[in-house]
Inverse folding.
């Protein structure tokens, strides 16, 4: 547990407590406590058990996500080991997406050579984009390896390449194709359907990679 919580369960063993069926029809629940009346201990135990269980489970979930929910009293003792029912309920509440979840693992660089890392609750997917060296108009640099802005921690799953011409030209058709990728770089090769001259235009490969 990364946070601190002093919200604890009331009657964690469910001792002397109304059953669900009894509590559902209890006059103290349906009509409220009458002025001057004594609330039976079994009904009181059920009431406080339900309220404290939900509160403690929510606090435990927040603590597990890095928050420190406390009731304002200082100093206080840390919560004792939770019961199985509290642990189970806190596990259900853990599916609630909080700001801590949304920010965990998120990073990005918005630049010509950049990336975005999605949070862990979205699988930690990483998208990167960059470009390689400009190929002269004479086509003397047909292939190259282009490093990603950041090495993918695990693997690059997919890479794609496009290209940019320095100027419009109708001389020839030309394009880049990928020749494999890795966690650190992508290899590209330029193709053309002519002699390698591009009417004075240079070409630059632009790539996108998806990984995790």
């Amino acid at each position: 547990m990364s946070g601190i919580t002093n919200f604890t369960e009331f009657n964690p063993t469910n001792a002397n407590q109304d059953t669900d069926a009894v509590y559902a029809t209890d006059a103290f629940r349906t009509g409220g406590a009458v002025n001057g009346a004594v609330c039976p201990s079994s009904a009181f135990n059920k009431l406080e058990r339900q309220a404290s269980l939900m509160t403690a489970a929510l606090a435990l979930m927040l603590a597990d996500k890095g928050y420190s929910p406390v009731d304002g009293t200082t100093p206080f003792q840390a919560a004792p080991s939770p019961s199985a029912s509290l642990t189970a309920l806190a596990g259900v509440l853990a599916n609630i997406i909080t700001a801590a979840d949304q920010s965990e693992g998120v990073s990005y660089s918005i630049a010509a050579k950049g990336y975005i890392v999605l949070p862990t609750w979205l699988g930690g997917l990483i998208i990167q984009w960059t470009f390689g060296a400009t190929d002269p108009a004479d086509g003397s640099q047909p292939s190259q390896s282009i490093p990603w802005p950041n090495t993918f921690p695990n693997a690059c799953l997919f890479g794609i390449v496009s290209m940019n011409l320095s100027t419009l030209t109708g001389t020839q058709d030309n394009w880049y194709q990928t020749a494999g990728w890795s966690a650190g770089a992508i290899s590209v090769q330029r193709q053309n359907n002519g002699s390698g001259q591009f009417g004075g235009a240079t070409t630059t490969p632009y790539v996108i990679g998806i990984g995790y």
Q: What stands out?
A: Helices lie at 20-25, 27-30, 41-64, 84-93, 99-103.
